[in-house]
Amino acid sequence: MSLRENGNLPRLLVIGARGFLGCFVSHRGSSCYEVVKADRTHAGYETDVVIDVADAASVRAGIDSVRPDAVALLAAVSDIDRCQREPGLAVAVNVHGAEEVASACARIGARLLFTSTGAVFDGRKHGYSEEDAVSPLSVYGETKAQAEKVVRALVPSALVLRVPLVLGRSGRAGSNSLLDSMMRRWSAGEVVSASTLESRNPVDAGTLSQWMLELLTDECNRGIFHAGATDTMTRYDIVRAYADCLHIPEQLMRAEREQPPGRAPRGLHHLLLTSKISAVCATPVPSCKEVIERSLNEVAEGSL
Ligand SMILES: NC(=O)c1ccc[n+]([C@@H]2O[C@H](COP(=O)([O-])OP(=O)(O)OC[C@H]3O[C@@H](n4cnc5c(N)ncnc54)[C@H](OP(=O)(O)O)[C@@H]3O)[C@@H](O)[C@H]2O)c1
Which residues line ligand 1 at a C-beta cut-off of 6 Å? Predict the structure, then answer.
């Protein structure tokens, strides 16, 4: 992406900047963009502009005031179980919110990156490419699949980045970071349970943010991209790997051999194939081992 007419760096609007991934993208993006951080409220964080994606007027006013060259849309109801319990909210934020942001980007000609999920698939196949038909099991997956369609129809050059599971330390309470919540539980002496049935090819938040920035920078990149590691681990093996690194005793881990009742349905095997992203991005696709190591050693604001 080229410099602005006045010679300044291009402007990247990060919507959902205080979230887990938003913190990483905002920090990393500042090396090549003038980053503008947008959140739902100003409360307690360095937000530059307030944008509530569920409020069309707020989206229009926010994007018109910033006039970004590129937008990373990370705001979402990202908790899969909450989406299942509150489908109206999930549709309002994840589908209609994405639609409003895409309309505003189309109107001002801004580049758009939308973050989607491996949950658009049912997890029955071992290895999904960008061409595979979507088959969501949960309300969350359904809202993301609908949003992908709407975003691509409104902004044909949009990037849709599907992610299976992101690992990293946001350093901020209340975000969607699995590792943060696991570490909080262990510090409080609580047991962490995880499925031995569900496998994922996770990616660390640092690598993912780097890919986002690389994809945005080259305007030839458009359409759907899959992100993830070269190999897969079960959720339980991910927990065990962290427990080993952090010297957590065996009794603070529990293997779930069936899905606990009352949770949103999750696919069994979410391996997102990454040959497309690896062909256009310089940052290499990591192994699960590298993902685990990096995710422990980096917080959103830099390395530990
Ligand atoms: N983390 C993963 O493993 C993963 C995997 C696949 C896909 N993704 C996708 O990646 C994106 C970022 O996820 P994340 O892990 O960073 O989630 P997160 O920590 O929950 O961040 C999402 C952000 O969106 C904000 N938000 C919610 N409703 C909003 C609204 N109406 N208007 C504006 N902002 C709103 C939240 O603000 P509040 O805190 O104020 O509610 C939060 O800061 C999401 O689209 C998610 O679906 C994440």
Answer: 16, 18-22, 40, 51-54, 74-78, 93, 97, 115, 117, 163, 165-166, 174-176
Distance 142 CA to ligand 1 centre (A): 16
Centre of ligand 1 from the C-alpha of residue 75, in Å: 4
Can you tell me the distance from the alpha carbon of 16 to that of 51, in angstroms, rounded to the nearest whole number?
9
8 A C-beta contact, residue 198 and residue 101: no
pLDDT band at 8 (very low <50, low <70, confident <90, very high): confident
> Which atom of ligand 1 is least distant from the CA of 41?
40
Report the alpha-carbon distance of residue 181 to residue 146 in Å, rounded. Answer: 29
- In contact, 206 and 279? CB cutoff 8 Å: no
CA distances from 120 to 95, 152, 236 (A): 13, 15, 22
Distance (angstroms) between ligand 1 centre and the Cα of 6 equals: 33
Domain ranges of the chain: 11-303
Give the chain's mean pLDDT. 94
Identify whether the C-beta of residue 142 lies closer than 8 Å to the C-beta of residue 83: no
Q: What architecture is the 11-303 domain classified under in CATH?
A: 3-Layer(aba) Sandwich (3.40)
> What distance in angstroms lies between residue 143's CA and the mean position of ligand 1's atoms?
13
